[in-house]
Specification:
- This protein has about 220 residues and is an all-alpha fold.
- The protein has one domain: Mitochondrial carrier fold, CATH 1.50.40.
- The chain contains eight helices and no strands.
- It is a multi-pass membrane protein.
C-alpha cells in the first residue's frame, strides 16, 4: 500500500494538471471564464482528458505478490525487474495501459462535466452536491469502460513476475478468452464501481475547492 499511497498525490497532480493545461490550449476562453457549467465544449473536455494517463507496473507487481518475498518494496521491485528483464521490463503492458487510459481518461472528465452542467443552473458554479454526484458518476463510467483492458494490462504486467507468460497484447486476449470466456474481462467490475463512486466524488470535490480557492485568492 505504501507505493500507491505515496504516489497518488503526484499521480492526481499529473492527471488534473495535464487535463487543465490541455483544456487551456484547446479552449483558451475557459481560462478566463468563471462559469463551470458552460465554459468548454464537451469535445474539448474529452480530448483534454486523453492527455492525462499515469503508469502503475510496480504497484501491480507489489499488490499481486501473494507468496514469498520476491519484492521487498518499490525500489527493490524496480531493481528485480531491471535485473531479470532489463529496461524493457519496466514497460511491460504499456500497450494495454495506453488502450485503457487514453480513451478512459477522456471519458473520466466527459461525464463529470456533462453531469455538472445538468445539475447546475446556467451562469452559476456547480455546488458541492453537484460536484460529488458528477465525480462519482465519472468514476463509475470510467471503470465500466476501463475494466476489460485493465484485466489485460494486469495480466501482462504480471507476466514474468510470477504470473503466466504472454507474448503480447493479442496473445493475452486470445488465451484469456479461450480459457475463461468473455466474462474474464469484467472481473472486478462491481468492486471497482463500488469503490469508484466515493473515491472520485471526493477527488473532484477536492479539486474544485482548491481551484476555487486559488482563483479567488488571485483575484483579491
Amino acid at each position: 500500500m505504501s507505493f500507491p499511497v505515496l504516489s497518488v498525490a503526484l499521480s492526481n497532480a499529473v492527471v488534473f494538471g495535464s487535463y487543465s493545461n490541455a483544456l487551456d490550449y484547446l479552449d483558451p476562453s475557459h481560462r478566463s471564464s468563471s462559469d463551470r457549467s458552460e465554459r468548454s465544449p464537451l469535445t474539448a473536455v474529452f480530448t483534454a482528458g486523453c492527455f492525462s494517463a499515469p503508469i502503475d507496473l510496480v504497484k501491480v507487481r507489489l499488490q499481486s505478490q501473494t507468496t514469498g518475498n520476491k519484492y521487498r518494496g518499490p525500489t527493490h521491485c524496480v531493481a528485480v525487474i531491471l535485473r531479470e528483464d532489463g529496461v524493457k521490463g519496466l514497460f511491460r503492458g504499456m500497450g494495454a495501459l495506453a488502450l485503457r487510459d487514453v480513451p478512459c481518461y477522456g471519458l473520466y472528465f466527459l461525464p463529470y462535466e456533462f453531469t455538472c452542467r445538468m445539475l447546475t443552473e446556467k451562469g452559476k458554479r456547480p455546488g458541492n452536491d453537484a460536484v460529488l454526484v458528477a465525480g462519482g458518476v465519472a468514476g463509475v463510467v470510467t471503470w465500466a469502460c476501463a475494466t476489460p483492458m485493465d484485466v489485460v494490462k494486469a495480466r501482462l504486467q504480471m507476466s514474468g513476475g510470477g504470473g503466466r507468460v504472454y507474448s503480447g497484447l493479442l496473445h493475452c486476449i486470445t488465451v484469456s478468452v479461450r480459457e475463461e470466456g468473455v466474462r474474464v474481462f469484467f472481473k472486478g467490475l462491481l468492486l471497482n464501481s463500488v469503490r469508484a463512486f466515493p473515491v472520485n466524488a471526493v477527488t473532484f470535490l477536492s479539486f474544485e475547492m482548491l481551484m476555487r480557492a486559488m482563483t479567488d485568492s488571485s483575484q483579491d
